[in-house]
User: What shape does this take?
Amino acid sequence: MTDFTLSNYTAIIFDLDSTLINTHRYPLRASMWILEKITDDVEAIADEYLQHLIRNYRKGIQEVAEGAEYRKPFDVVKRAIKESMTAMNIDIDDALLEEGTHLFRWLHVETSEVYPGVEELLIALKERGMKIGVVTNGFEKHIQIILSKLNLLHYFASMVDGGDVKAFKPMALPFQRAMDNLGVGPKETLFVGDEYFADIVGSTSLGIDAVWVKSRGGNLDEMVAKYGESSRPKLVVDSTAELAQYL
Assistant: This one.
């Protein structure tokens, strides 16, 4: 039984997508719409295309994290779509590429849903006087739009996206801006996220304790072997709502 407790921290900062908010549907819906405009055989190529898309999106984020010039998430997604089509020898014209990328951005908001138990957790954290923030690599300004749509905005004292600092997690700037906004340091802060590299490696590299929400699967020992013992999170959970057990 772990002795982990949230009472050890002054502030808790969350990732947005797949941590607080379920936005899993929007990439599939947008991708299917684009593919249906191009081919009559969508089902035959959809899985391969989505694998390329995810890989190219993550590559675009990582390039910025490794020192490339900052690109807006819209442009990262747009390039990932184009590169994925090219990898599969599919032509896409500029007008469809632009329209499809706008659809990605619109559906990110339209299909967003709060995970069960998350608002109850936020209420409990607020009642205990904890400072709460959120940091995302997602579309600029969508934190405010999505949290407002879901009536969650009032729980958060800090909201940081890549456009605010011209950087993406795992870079230090997004985490540091959130802590500065909350008036806390690394030792007072807990970060909660689902992407091991962006969220867990990024936060622990600054001396912030982390919780890994393993909602997409993965193996902790493999991740620690890849990124080092210093990246090991304090706790691994299957859902953010499980944190209520550690109040």
In short: DSSP finds ten helices and eight strands in the chain. Residues 42-65 form the longest helix (24 residues).
